[in-house]
Amino acid sequence: MIATKGAAETLSRDAVIERALALADAEGLDAVTIRRLGQEFGVTPMALYWHVKNKEELLDAMGDRIFAAVELDYASTALWDEQLRAVVRALVQAMRAHPTCVELAYRRIFGSAEGQRLAEHTLGLLRRAGFTVRQTADIASHALQTAVMLVSAEPGAEPGFNEDERNENLAVKRAGLMALPADVFPYIREAADELLHCDDMADYYEFGIDMFVAGARATLADTA
Amino acid sequence: MIATKGAAETLSRDAVIERALALADAEGLDAVTIRRLGQEFGVTPMALYWHVKNKEELLDAMGDRIFAAVELDYASTALWDEQLRAVVRALVQAMRAHPTCVELAYRRIFGSAEGQRLAEHTLGLLRRAGFTVRQTADIASHALQTAVMLVSAEPGAEPGFNEDERNENLAVKRAGLMALPADVFPYIREAADELLHCDDMADYYEFGIDMFVAGARATLADTA
DNA sequence: ACCTGAACACCGTTCAAGT
DNA sequence: ACCTGAACACCGTTCAAGT
Q1: Is the domain covering A75-154+204-223 a CATH 1.10.10.10 domain?
Q2: What's the predicted TM-score (pTM) here?
Q3: What is the pLDDT of residues A38-60, one digit of tens each?
């Protein structure tokens, strides 16, 4: 049972979605079950079906919430590559709030209102930059996928563990890599720490986003 | 029940893993359950536990299989960017054989023998190209993630559906996009076909890989 | 060495019934 | 309008028992 903040919440569609997100954050997406959510609200599992059609619809709604939190200056007049960078930054920022749920968001771009708005904006800025329709579709998809992959690959932060357990987990992985023979795997051993850990998350994300935008810029240069 | 090719296979660790991959290809990863695999072999679910420790170990073994199929010229003397391209190409090729299982492979790089070999190779070529250890770790991770995202985002090819159902599915999605108001969503409507479908898969993958490598190249140029 | 039967603690979901 | 009870068809896994 997740820490109940304040009084026992009353059941409602919004409350269910919010609790589901909190549960995913705390214990992983697998912990989000209809029966468990019933427990959280002190109610029969079947009670949830009044507020939510079924589990799939609940997961979709969770994905929509993530897009709804995207904050982007749609009126920006910056150059196209700066605008593309801003799109990925905004996606990453929204997804980091619920890292275990990125895959849910991924499939809801065209299904959610905010996702549609974001997609339209991104496709537009790419088309006006001079990309073909085909390139535009691919790059826009890659932008979303890049955000998904950066967040879901974020080293550490596995749910369902406290900090001690996470450190223990990391130490085990590190030991596993360092146990490899030094003559055959010098590079893995050299990079072990950097592969498993990252002490500046801001740098991690900026580096990933920079590389993506640089790739897009190079593609445009090659085409023109 | 998946089409039983030839006689009823005898139970063995290898047979279980292979059947699990075939099942995932045909009906998705969710269809892979211990009980279902028991059915496939005409055997009690518990019989599988003799050949496989538990479900997690089975999933890990499936991931290892994917890496084991990676074909790469480890002795290549090409320039670093061409070698990096070859790494992603090889990963994509191996993963396309079992597209629903890419996430299983993803977490097995450092756990499987072939994954370790591939990681060492990739880290080495990046280090010798002049990247820092931090950059090397990030770019190598991105290489794997790029392959994962290209394959898992491959338009169409959702399992558990025959071709008619997939076309129907596509038509529904297309109709959904074309139903958006033309004045607010001109770019989504323009790109609808390209967003949902791709008639040249080779181009799709080459474009994605090119963009990734171009990003890495630009990063090195900026650093130097 | 390899497989089975029974059992346990879980899932999502339906449907009639209660208030 | 909103919730419950009972039931169904699923999961993964353990453990003693069979051959």
Answers
A1: no
A2: 0.94
A3: 999 999 999 999 999 999 999 99
